[in-house]
Amino acid sequence: MAVGSGDCPDLRALCEHIGDCHRCPLGSTRTQVVFGSGDPRAELMFVGEAPGRNEDLEGAPFVGAAGRFLDELLQSIGLERSQVYIANVVKCRPPGNRDPLPLEIETCTPFLRRQMELIAPRVVATLGRFSAHWLLDTEVPISALRGRLYHVGDIRVVPVFHPAAALYDASKRDVLFEDFKRLRAVCDDRRDGATSASAQTPEAPLASGAAPAVQDRQPADLSDPASEAPGLSHGDPSQGALF
Ligand code: SF4
Predict the structure, then answer these.
(1) Rounded to the nearest whole angstrom, what is the distance from the C-alpha of residue 75 to the centroid of ligand 1?
(2) Which fold has domain 11-226?
(3) Would you list the domain boundaries of the chain?
(4) Atom of ligand 1 nearest to the CA of 50
(5) What is the DSSP letter of 148?
(6) What CA–CA distances, in Å, run from 174 to 115, 161, 163, 243?
(7) Higher-confidence position of 156 and 7
(8) Which ligand 1 atom is nearest residue 111's CA?
(9) Does 228 score more than 60 pLDDT?
(10) Distance (Å, whole) CA 142 – CA 125
């Protein structure tokens, strides 16, 4: 199920198109669809996993404890929520905060795909494994994906741990602050007009069912965002250097 530009020329139309969605089983257990929020022209977009209890009740992403930590992480790099856009892989809360199922992800991600096309972020930070796995089309653990910069078409992708992970594992807190510093460097590098990944990456047609403009998922050493490494094997993080 693709969502085309004719159906949804802007975010408002997309939100109306989703409506009181029951296209997957999560529609019968959630309170409300959590569409996403933030600057519709944001250069930096965050993609999380799924709404939790608080998000389900309030209708906005990242409003609980994990959201407060995300605000803290944003502030640490001089950003506010109003300057970024935040959405999730699935737009309805899975019962009991369980992991979203493959069918639910498959059914819901066309909405996210169209959302990303409309926002057209230059940098996407994936929060946790589900968004990283979807966008990078890999099953590599998030602990191995983080610390590298990936090129997905024209988009720079920076996988980081989900902020909720730091609530249960304090050691991830410092890792997240460090990764956000790298994220800021990647954003600033792009804004300064440094080497473009797309200029170094061959174009390919968008495959049906793929994420938006997801043709090349090439890892590079994030410790030096200006020194990108196109040509590394597809989706193999073992060839990118860690921080
Ligand atoms: S998770 Fe997505 S596809 Fe499923 S009911 Fe909610 S909006 Fe619809």
Answers:
(1) 31
(2) Uracil-DNA Glycosylase, subunit E (3.40.470)
(3) 11-226
(4) 1
(5) E
(6) 31, 11, 11, 13
(7) 156
(8) 2
(9) no
(10) 12
